[in-house]
Amino acid sequence: MRAFTVERYGTKDGLRAGEVPDPEVGADDVLVRVHAAGVNPLDYRIRDGEFKAILPYKVPFVLGHDMAGVVVQVGDAVQRFSVGDEVYARPDKDRIGTFAEFIAVHQDDVALKPSTLTMEQAASLPLVALTSWQVLVERARVRPGQKVLVHAGSGGLGTIAIQLAKHLGASVATTTSTANVELVKSLGADVVIDYKKQAFETVLHDYDVVLDSLGGQTLEKSLRVLKPGGKVISVAGPPDAAFAREVGANPVVRLVIGALSFRTRRRARRRNVEYSFLFMKADGNQLRELATLVDAGVVRPVIDRVFPFEATREALDYAEQGRVKAGKVVIRMT
Q1: What confidence tens digit (pLDDT) does each residue in 95-106 have?
Q2: CATH of 127-277, one of 3.40.50.720, 3.20.20.70, 3.30.930.10, 3.40.630.10
Q3: Rounded to two decimals, what is the model's pTM?
C-alpha cells in the first residue's frame, strides 16, 4: 500500500512517500481503508524526534494520528463492527499510521463516524475532540457555571474545546487573532481576547480551568488567571512525572521528565493552583459520545484546507508554518 513514512528523525526530508506492506489484522482489529486523515502538530513534532525519549518509534514508521474511512476486514473477535461500516478513530499511540491507504486499529479505539459529516470532516476530529473531552470532562470535570479559558480558540483544538465547554455549561473565554474574533464567538465563546490588542492575564481572573495549547510564557501567565484550587491543563507545556508513568517510561526518564515541569509545578503550588500535562489516549467509547454530540449539532468541525494524499508533506509544512487561518488541515486519499 502507499504510505508516508518517517525514514529518519529530525528533518522534513525524512518523511517520504513509498510502498509499505499491508497491515496485519489481529483478532481484535478492524482494517480500515482510509478516506481522509487529519494533520496535527503532533505529526511534525514526532517527525522531528521531539518525543523520541518517551515514544521511541523505530524508523521507518508510518506517520499520522487521525482518520476516517470504511471497514474492509474485521478480526475474528470483533463483534461491534462489520465490513462496510464508516468509522473514525485516533489509533493508539503504539499503532499510529493514518497517512496510508489502510490501517489496522483495535476495535476499542474505533467508533462509527458521525453520520452528518463527510469523511474529511470526520477525519479532522478524533485527536482534538478526544483531547477536549479528556481535559474538560475527565480531568477538569467542568460543571455548569464554571469559568473556562481555552487558548488559541481558532485552532484545531480550540474550536472543538470551546463548543464542548459551552455544552458543559461553562462560561468560556478564549484568545485569538483579530481575524477570528467572530468565528470563536459563533462557536460559543462568551469572552474573546484579541491577543494583538490585549494581554489576557490583565483582563481575566478567577477562572476554574485553563486549557493551554501554547506552552511557554502563555502557560506561565495562565497560572495568574486561575482562582485558588483552579487547574491549568496543558497539551504543550512541559510533561510531568504522571505522564511519564502513563507511557511506561523507565525510572531515569521519569526523573528527567519530572524535572522539566518542576518550575511550573512549583509556581502553581505557590498560587494554590494545579498544573498537569495531558497526552490524549485513544478511546472508542469517547468517540461514540462525541459522535452523538456532533450529530445533535452541539459540536461542529472547522476545516481550513484539504490537501490530496500526494501532497502530505506540503500539508504538514502548511500547518507547521502557521498558515492555517482556522481549524484543521485534512488530507484526502485519492
Answers
A1: 999 999 999 999
A2: 3.40.50.720
A3: 0.96
